[in-house]
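Morning F.,

Quick status update on the modeling queue. The single chain you submitted on Monday has been processed. Sequence for confirmation:
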Amino acid sequence: MPTLDNLTVCDTNYDGFAYFDLSQQNPIIQAANTISPLTIRYYTSQSNAMNQLFPIVGITNYLNQSNPQTIWVVASDPSTGCMVIGSFDLIVNLPINVTGQNNLLTLCDEALPNNQFTTFDLTVMNNQILGTSTGTVAYYTTFANAQAQTNAIANPTAFTNTAAAVQTLWAVVTSAQGCKSITTLTIRVAPLPTPKTDP
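Structure tokens below.
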């Protein structure tokens, strides 16, 4: 039985549960052995694995029962019944929770006339978006680009709004484990006052 790496996925709804494809381990186990094909089965406990009781059904779409969870695997020679047991962990990494954020960045128009365009340093919002978490933030002008992670704003420290007055941007937040979440950032240009010149 080779040393098996843990299987790690990112959560999508912050509950610590996700679906795993346990069969990813099959070719690794098979490659470490000259007997082919091996019979490979997965179990939720060491006792079940040793006694070959209650193997996991549906190994390509297995929902973890805890986080982390240890999975036991048995590889056996179908002709002799000789077997070996190994284990690995299922780990669900949580993305940074950005739900319910109300991110707003307001600047005054730079000069008259009030055309409601100005240059923003979007990175001043990074700490608010990340909160106490460690990660990175990339900004996009469309939700589609944020989902595909293409065409990020090249220079977020000097972004001029492309829609007058109020514009919605999308921020892709990546955790230290590589899990991603998306939130919005509203940027607003407030007009300068225009006092009467002949009061």
